[in-house]
Amino acid sequence: xxxxxxxxxxxxxxxxxxxxxxxxxxxxxxxxxxxxxxxxxxxxxxxxxxxxxxxxxxxxxxxxxxxxxxxxxxxxxxxxxxxxxxxxxxxxxxxxxxxxxxxxxxxxxxxxxxxxxxxxxxxxxxxxxxxxxxxxxxxxxxxxxxxxxxxxxxxxxxxxxxxxxxxxxxxxxxxxxxxxxxxxxxxxxxxxxxxxxxxxxxxxxxxxxxxxxxxxxxxxxxxxxxxxxxxxxxxxxxxxxxxxxxxxxxxxxxxxxxxxxxxxxxxxxxxxxxxxxxxxxxxxxxxxxxxxxxxxxxxxxxxxxxxxxxxxxxxxxxxxxxxxxxxxxxxxxxxxxxxxxxxxxxxx
Length: 348
Ligand SMILES: [Zn+2]
Prior knowledge:
- By secondary structure, this protein is an alpha/beta fold.
- The protein is built from twelve helices and 13 strands.
- The protein has an eight-stranded parallel sheet. Strands 1-10-13 form a three-stranded antiparallel sheet. Strands 11-12 form a two-stranded antiparallel ribbon.
- Helix 1 (26-34) links the parallel strand 2 (15-18) and strand 3 (39-42).
- The two termini are 18 Å apart.
- The structure holds zinc ion (ZN).
- Residues 17, 19, 43, 251, 253 line the site of zinc ion.
- Zinc ion binds next to loops.
């Protein structure tokens, strides 16, 4: 693995949670999604959302048209669950071999989730079908109940929604996405082998002080929102520990600069300019680079029941600076960690 502390070669990682948007945006987002990754779980919260197998397959075609010739990256599609998603649609998704999960957004939890699920009881038969075929349920784990403080939405969701769901469907494979709290880390560690969690680079690298002390930094605003330092520390420990229940999911999500630097700024961090290096930075700080391959390249495929990628990537120890911005359609986009100096760089 580590060659005189200067190089690190690992099985090619996958990104188990990312947003590409659609149409012209794909010209930017797809090539960056391929950078350093073998596969990506594509979030379905488009406008309108990807609620059927047919829509997912059409979306996949638009994505495939933007993959650079040199890349072997592949998109793994996901259905957007609504109150009306039928068990038949789940069977169809399973048979399509193109769909690798169904995403539960509590209605209104984040960007373009207004038509998400309002009442889990309406999906009993749908979850039973998912259990039967072994399809992963990806969850945005935040309560949207009125009056719940934004910093408490994840633990409230675990108590009121996730615990009863796991009890009712003990065989359902659940990926609790972009976890942000000690509560989620402990919950996942104490569950059986059906519940895993993905962790973003922003929740490992930053906490709410980074976002709010000395001025508000809109490019660090994402949902679930950054939490206290003790939560950040619990995520770092979970990711770098080698525990198989935690894996890489960037939640990379593009919003143009003007929509972030705005009186009502959008939530989301775009990390695909330097995603694997941002993770490497944290693992290096914890002297845990030997665990990066498990977190980035093995735990995810093991959970999804997929083979590891059959190629490798190499990171070299080399200082470089993340660009301040890039062109994005007819506007610009500020990446996560803009102007930050990194110690590791992907060898392209
Ligand atoms: Zn997301």
